[in-house]
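Issue: ligand-bound run for zinc ion - logging full I/O for the record.

Environment: standard queue, default settings, no custom constraints.

Inputs:
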Amino acid sequence: MPEYCDVALPVPLDMVFTYRVPAETIPVVGGRVLVPFRQQRLIGVITELHDRKPSVKIKSILRVLDATPVLDDQLLRLGRWIANYYLAPLGEVFRTMLPLTAEFKRAVAYRITKEGQLALHLAGMSGSSARSRRTPEEQAAEFRVLDYLAAQEAAPEEAIELEQINVREEALRSATRVSKLTLNGLVRKKCIAREDVSAVRDATRTIKIALLKSADGKLNDNQRRIIETLAAAGGRVPVETLQALEIPRSTLGTLVKRGLIEVVAEAADFLVSRAKARPSPFAFDFNSAQQNALSRLREAVDTRKFAGILLHGVTGSGKTAVYLAGMRAVLEAGRSAILLVPEIGLTPAVAADLHQIFGDEVAILHSALSDKERAQQWHRIRSGEARMVVGTRSAVFAPVADLALIIVDEEQDSSYKQEESPRYHARDVAVVRAKMANAAVVLGSATPSLESYFNAKKNKYALVELPDRVEQRPLPEVEIVDMRQEFQETGHEQVISRKLAAEIKERFDRHEQVMVLLNRRGYSPVALCRTCGKTLECRNCAIAMTHHKREHKMICHYCGYTAPVPKSCVHCGSEYVYFLGTGSEKLEELLHGMFPQARIARLDRDTVRGHEDFERTLNALNEGELDLLVGTQMIAKGHDIHGVTLVGVVGADSALGLPDFRAAERTFQLLTQVAGRAGRGQSPGKVILQTYFQDHYAVQYAAHHDFTGFYEKELRFRSWMHYPPYSALANVLIRSDKLDEALQWSGTLGKWFEQSRHEGVRVLGPATAPILRLKRDYRYHFVLKSPSREKLNGTLRSMLAYAAAQKIPRTQVIVDVDALWLM
Ligand SMILES: [Zn+2]
Ligand SMILES: [Zn+2]
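Outputs:
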């Protein structure tokens, strides 16, 4: 066995750490180990076993957690690629790839020793030792500890199976009410032994206690409580439930011995959605475009070589059915597939569909899973029990064997980008993983990202189109309403134009349904003082706080800070505080006022706490229990509601005013997506697009459903400005809660960039970030662009090394490669 191993630890440092391998352990590369690190213990992944003696003093591994790798060669390689490409610490990458934190429990436990038994015996005979310097209280405390531990020791064998015989520190201290000092004293005297019982738990099994028969004969209080708890719960509960009753474990042992209960290890409960089953997506026949897409997909899979497909299908063209048919073909061939979906797309109803199609072969990874459930799903995938994986961003790391296909639905969706370290983009990782696995990757969208479309144009991906809606339904007609003209003609700043109001009324008269999009939540986005002209800003961010009327609060949408609704100006004390602008909450109120008879609901982050709320509202719309749904971009994503014939867009173009080179692309995508909600049933749809930017090409092309036109124009702009996809781009953000520090650090790095000349890399900055202060941090940034990714990454790497040498903490220098936001 090699003497040393290198371990990647989840700490913000760009290095691995060497530890000694104790003789009796057999660690594996790709397996996890518990190691001491500074004052703590951390779990890391072994990256290498070797015999190179380190020059510095090193520590030993404390515990080997896996006998076989949890990251196979391919996933280790993928992890290294991510660390390298996104300049992220390798240990943080591995932590993101492994959802196994629930399997590890850190704990310290105690057991009584022979010396302890003797001391207990003597204390019982003679009271106390005369020479003792301890107070009677201390002696009593020690006696309680020894007595308690001795009682546990006496528990019969069966109880021991539950856990080891030692008693966890928390349990011991709560049962005996002693301090840590008392325990330390007893350990020093060797009366008790302290052990590290940090352990890997088998997440696939749950230890349960089952009731065999209820009382025969006498039971003491504790015994009766256990039997009653079991009976009340239907005869079987997880052992944790009984442990929570704080009854000595010896009681359980006694009951096992008397044949009243037994200990069973059960396969963990598997959560299956109980949502109402919908007709299978295979209920309709494929049109020729869908058939073509499916056969292209199957061909790509069958070659067993890397192949990329960009599936560009207009809204309502039946992309999902193609995905699912492709996955079923992979399953039938005995191989594995991963389907990535945006955060909002994985509702219980979608999960129910998937179970219907794939049965127990599917593992669904969504954000509502607990750590334990996540670990269970990971094991199902790893064991080959589930070969179809559907999930949000991190499902791209699912440990499937024989990967044949990865599908990224709505590949342009920003939820695929992780906005914390490692700042990876799951779509791009999916492509790299498919390459490593010789698998096919399908990127699907009605509005592909510029990057993916560009790659398809350069033949890196095959472009497969679904140009028509299913059943020859027409795309909705889009009418633009110029809100500047509306203002001139009515003399008021309008939220809902006369045209939109008239169209809504018409739909209500025909008993059809309406959606209205306003991509801004809350009641009013700004509280402005008319006397001094200042706004109410968040205490932690340079951002105006939003008025939320129902909650009667001012809320910062960036950090969540809340404040009371001001009666007077916080700056000058003036009473003339006005609430300006309209959010979705106010829009809902306005619509109620205009159409008092209509059944109106709202869908945004304030009304939706989880997938369940989201789905309940959409179901209500689907069942015809609502006339109008107002909401933020949440309403724009992929729902298939047949009764909606009118979509109103209110202020969706406000993003065009932001200093962000992706603003046009985002606006075009949002407008196209939301327009796509109209006319998905028998009646044709219409969209009323209210805008202050009526001449902007993003608005014009979206109104004409002209994807190609938009892309060509936007690509030209990106090319002139050296933006992606023509340049690789990285945002480097310097932050500190002290303004001086943020300024000084960004100045230091700015000088370094200037002096160290990086050929082929443009560096802009330092500049104040568009949001100067966020979550208490002052922020400055650099934007780096280069046609050569290698040069860009080389520069970033040198910059990080320089920053480290200048003692700028790694956590305060954020490198965001392929940043989606420059805010
Ligand atoms: Zn004021
Ligand atoms: Zn804030």
